[in-house]
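Could you help me review a protein record that somebody else here produced? This is what I was given.
***
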Amino acid sequence: QVQLVESGGGLVQAGGSLRLSCTASGDTLSRYGMGWFRQAPGKEREFVAAIRWSGGSTSYADSVKGRFTISRDNAKNTLYLQINSLKPEDTATYYCAADSRAYLYTSVRTRLYEYDYWGQGTQVTVSS
């Protein structure tokens, strides 16, 4: 099974940028659909962005469209999330997740229960 480790979080001022990384081990990342989710204090974990196992299609939450970009480098076994124009409401723990059944579907999967492997999360804090 795949193990996921996120990195790249930190404290940044509003309007700034970060690039989150998620490195996989134990299996080949190209076998999985991949997603980013986030959870703010006192709130439920929510979908942020996802990308098909082939990398050909992506999906974004409305709140991040135009500011966040998900990408993957299967050769490096790494998933990325480029975050621009950060807002205080983007403050959360960001998790990457892997969907082992993604190859069965033609659409990008965006629901939490569709992902079966999760990283430990990386904290993003945006100051105003």
